[in-house]
């Protein structure tokens, strides 16, 4: 039994370390967060194209809520700079919506989507 | 994003990964390490340090680097165990630098080993006069092994044809006040015997003992927590805490 534990415990430590480090793709999809993010991003793009700025601001808020919910569980498997860049995209997107600039808003939104997609790749 | 928490988690991952990997790599002592082993150790340690504190890249990439370096070292270890030829190619071979009392200059040049290095290594071995040396071998780890001329070697009981008794390893019976019953059983002894032996030395309970060792002649060495020293020698050169 002791000999079994001697191998089991280090094995479990290494396995759990690997799970923490590469668990990002699964944690991103947990609770349907990935689908929600993509859904709100699509809705936001639609609202920007239709000049529905109040709705766009509401979708952006929901998008940000999903991001803030997902970030704590992804933080061990992503790099810090990428997380900071996503936060900056949110700020720039918010500015573009406040200025009612559809071109700038769409540029920021598509970059945000790309960064989200690549976050755990 | 809680950076402190991330560093704590990454530190734990790095620490335990390094600990497990080095345990698998075996019991090579620092003094046995070749120059390449030394460089490998530094590289692996450096990757582990980066894994811990470099938050600008994913922990997984550093961990994979660590695992690959570890795997290659393990592979080389296994190869050197199986193949003597490859072991020579990987680890190199010892070089005779003094043969029959004469310095082998060409061999030293090939090994890029200076006369000053040789003299230093000899002094470390307690040899201050080159004429005492019959053979000196530069080992793979850079240490020099010395065989003195027979007239300079210490006299042994065998030389004097004196009878000797077998001397093996001592066995720990008490460590830090706790009886190691497994060792007692291995020697076919029991607690009653131990208590009796301790009482002979004026000890009432094993908890009074820091260390007790039984040698192969059957003598019990006991060191108590309470030291019978009138005044301890202070080797410090300055006042204040040591």
Describe it:
The complex is a heterodimer of chains A (about 120) and B (about 240). Chain A is mostly helical and about 120 residues long. Chain A has helices at about 1-20, 25-30, 35-50, 55-75, 80-100, 100-120. Chain B folds into three domains: about 5-90; about 95-150, CRO Repressor, CATH 3.30.240; about 170-225, CRO Repressor (2-Layer Sandwich). Chain B contains eight helices and eight strands; from the N terminus they run ααααββααββββααββ. In chain B, helix 1 (about 5-25) packs antiparallel against helix 2 (about 35-55). Chain B starts with a helix and ends in an 18-residue tail after the last strand. The interface of A and B includes residues 13, 17, 21, 71 and 78 of A.
List the topology elements.
The complex is a heterodimer of chains A (121) and B (242).
Chain A: H1 2-22, H2 24-29, H3 33-49, H4 53-74, H5 80-98, H6 102-118
Helix pairs in contact in A: 3-4, 3-6, 4-5, 5-6
Chain B: H1 3-25, H2 35-53, H3 59-82, H4 84-91, E1 95-99, E2 102-103, H5 105-110, H6 115-124, E3 133-138, E4 144-148, E5 171-175, E6 178-179, H7 181-186, H8 191-200, E7 209-214, E8 220-224
Antiparallel strand pairs in B: 1-2, 1-3, 3-4, 5-6, 5-7, 7-8
Helix pairs in contact in B: 1-2, 1-3, 2-3, 3-4
Which features would summarize this protein structure in a list?
heterodimer, A: 6 helices, elongated, B: 242 residues, alpha+beta, CRO Repressor, 3 domains, four-stranded antiparallel β-sheet, extended
């Amino acid at each position: 039994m002791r000999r079994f534990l001697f191998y089991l415990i280090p094995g479990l430590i290494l396995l759990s370390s690997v799970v923490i480090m590469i668990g990002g793709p699964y944690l991103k999809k947990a609770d349907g967060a990935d689908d929600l993010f993509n859904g709100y991003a699509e809705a936001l793009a639609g609202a920007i194209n239709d000049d529905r700025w109040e709705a766009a601001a509401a979708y952006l808020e929901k998008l940000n809520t999903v991001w803030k919910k997902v970030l704590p569980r992804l933080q061990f498997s992503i790099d810090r700079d990428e997380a900071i860049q996503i936060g900056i995209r949110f700020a720039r997107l918010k500015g573009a919506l406040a200025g009612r600039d559809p071109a700038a808003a769409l540029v920021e939104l598509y970059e945000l989507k790309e960064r989200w997609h690549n976050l755990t790749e | 994003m809680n950076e402190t928490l991330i560093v704590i988690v990454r530190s734990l991952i790095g620490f335990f990964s390094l600990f497990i990997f080095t345990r698998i790599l075996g019991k090579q002592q620092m003094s046995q390490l070749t120059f390449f082993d030394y460089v490998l150790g530094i590289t692996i340690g450096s990757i582990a340090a980066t894994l811990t504190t470099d938050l600008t890249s994913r922990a997984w990439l550093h961990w994979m680097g660590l695992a690959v370096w570890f795997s290659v070292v393990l592979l080389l270890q296994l190869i050197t165990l199986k193949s003597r030829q490859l072991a020579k190619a990987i680890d190199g071979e010892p070089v005779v630098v003094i043969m029959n009392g004469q310095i082998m200059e060409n061999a030293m040049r090939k090994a890029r080993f200076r006369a000053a290095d040789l003299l230093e290594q000899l002094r470390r071995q307690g040899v201050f006069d080159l004429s005492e040396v019959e053979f000196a071998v530069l080992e793979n780890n850079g240490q020099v092994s010395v065989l003195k001329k027979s007239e300079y070697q210490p006299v042994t009981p065998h030389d004097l044809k004196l009878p000797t008794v077998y001397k093996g390893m001592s066995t720990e019976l008490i460590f830090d006040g706790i009886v190691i019953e497994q060792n007692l059983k291995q020697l076919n002894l029991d607690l009653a015997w131990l208590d009796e032996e301790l009482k002979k030395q004026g000890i009432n309970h094993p908890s009074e003992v820091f260390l007790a060792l039984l040698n192969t002649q059957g003598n019990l060495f006991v060191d108590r927590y309470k030291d019978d020293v009138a005044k301890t020698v202070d080797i410090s050169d300055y006042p204040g805490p040591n």
